[in-house]
Design a protein that fits this description.
By secondary structure, the protein is of the alpha/beta class. The protein has eleven helices and 14 strands. The protein has a domain of 211 residues: NAD(P)-binding Rossmann-like Domain (Rossmann fold, 3-Layer(aba) Sandwich).
Length: 334
C-alpha cells in the first residue's frame, strides 16, 4: 500500500511512518516543519532502512496537494497535520480554526478529485469536553472546552457529512487520549520548540535543567490527589493503532470513531513520581492556578477499538516514562 501521511515529521506522525514502513507500506510525507524537524527523516531511515518521500509545504496550499496526488497514487491518507496546543488555541482561536479546518477541507477536496476516499483522521479525546461519566465510550456526549478541541469536533462533523454525501468514503476517526513515550531506539520522540504545552515534554525540560521547575496547573480538582487525571498512552502503541485503522478502512466503507487509550487514568503527580522513580531523577514542581480549558479527569474505554480494529495498548506507564527520558538523553548526548 502507498500511504500519504500529512504532518509525518511530527511526534505521532513520525512514529506512525515507522510503523507503516516496517509493515511494507510505501510512505509519502507532507509537512511544513512548523513544529518538527527534517532530521526526523534521517532517523526514520536509520530505524527502518527506508527513506519516505518528503514534500515540505503547507496543507492549505491547494496546488501543492494536487501536485502530490498527480505524482502518486495513494491507497489511503493519514491526516495528522494541524495545530495542537490547547492553551495556544484559547489565545489564538482564529489561527486554529483557519489552519485546522482549511487544511482538512483542501485535503478532502483533492482526495475526492483523485478518487482516493480512504482516510484516517487524527482526532482527540478533547471532543468529549468535560465527560459526564468515566470511562469514556465513543457514544458519549460530544462537546468541547477549547478551540483546539472544537476544531477536531468540527472536522469530525465535516467528515461525517462527507460520508453521507458519498458512501464510497471510508473514514476512521481516532480519538487519542494523551500520547507520551518515544521510540525505543532513542531516535524519535517529542521535543517541541519553546515552552511545552503538554506535561511529559515539560517534565523532560525540567529533568534536563532547561527549565527550573514544573508548573502543575491546579491541585483542587475532584481527583485522588487534586491534580488532573489523564489516560497516558505510549506513542508506539498509538502508531500501531493507525496501521490497524488503515487495514480497517481499506476493506470497508462508512465512518466510525475509535478511542485510542489504555483505559487507565493517572494524575499529574503520579506521572511525576513514576518518572522520578524509573529515571532516578528529581523533578521540582510548583502548584499554580488551573489553566483555562482544562478538565479534571479523562480516560478511555478502549474496548471498541479492540473489537473493531483488533488493537489494544500494551506498554505501561514505566515504559512511557523511561522511553521519553531515553530519547532526550540520547539527543542531548550527540
Amino acid at each position: 500500500m502507498k500511504i500519504l501521511v500529512t504532518g509525518g515529521c511530527g511526534y505521532i506522525g513520525s512514529h506512525t511512518v515507522v510503523e507503516l514502513l516496517e509493515n511494507d507500506c510505501e510512505v509519502v510525507i507532507i509537512d511544513d516543519l512548523s513544529n518538527s524537524d527534517k532530521i526526523v527523516l534521517n532517523h526514520i531511515q536509520k530505524i527502518t532502512g527506508k527513506m519516505p518521500i518528503f514534500y515540505e509545504g503547507d496543507m492549505k496550499n491547494f496546488d501543492l496537494l494536487r501536485k502530490i496526488f498527480q505524482e502518486h497514487t495513494f491507497d489511503a491518507v493519514i491526516h495528522f497535520a494541524g495545530y495542537k496546543a490547547v492553551g495556544e488555541s484559547v489565545q489564538k482561536p482564529l489561527m486554529y480554526y483557519e489552519n485546522n479546518l482549511e487544511s482538512t477541507i483542501h485535503l478532502c477536496e483533492v482526495m475526492n478529485e483523485f478518487h482516493c476516499k480512504k482516510l484516517v483522521f487524527s482526532s482527540s479525546a478533547t471532543v468529549y469536553g468535560s465527560p459526564e461519566k468515566l470511562p469514556i465510550k465513543e457514544d458519549a456526549k460530544l462537546s468541547t472546552t477549547n478551540p483546539y478541541g472544537t476544531t477536531k469536533l468540527m472536522i469530525e462533523h465535516i467528515l461525517r457529512d462527507l460520508v453521507v454525501s458519498d458512501s464510497n468514503w471510508s473514514i476512521a476517526l481516532l480519538r487519542y487520549f494523551n500520547p507520551i513515550g518515544a521510540h525505543t531506539s532513542g531516535l524519535l520522540g517529542e521535543n517541541p520548540k519553546g515552552i511545552p504545552n503538554n506535561l511529559m515534554p515539560y517534565i523532560i525540560k525540567v529533568a534536563t535543567k532547561e527549565l527550573p521547575q514544573l508548573n502543575v496547573f491546579g491541585n483542587d480538582y475532584d481527583t485522588k490527589d487534586g491534580t488532573g487525571v489523564r489516560d497516558y498512552i505510549h506513542v508506539v502503541d498509538l502508531a500501531h493503532g493507525h496501521l490497524c485503522a488503515v487495514n480497517k478502512i481499506i476493506n470497508s466503507t462508512g465512518i466510525d470513531a475509535y478511542n485510542l487509550g489504555t483505559g487507565k487514568g493517572y494524575s499529574v503527580l503520579e506521572l511525576v513520581s513514576t518518572f522520578e522513580r524509573v529515571n532516578n531523577i528529581k523533578i521540582p514542581y510548583e502548584i499554580c492556578p488551573r489553566r483555562s480549558g482544562d478538565i479534571a479527569e479523562c480516560y478511555a474505554d478502549p474496548s471498541y477499538a479492540k473489537e473493531k480494529l483488533n488493537w489494544e495498548a500494551t506498554k505501561n506507564l514505566e515504559e512511557m516514562c523511561r522511553d521519553s527520558y531515553n530519547y532526550v538523553s540520547n539527543i542531548n548526548n550527540k
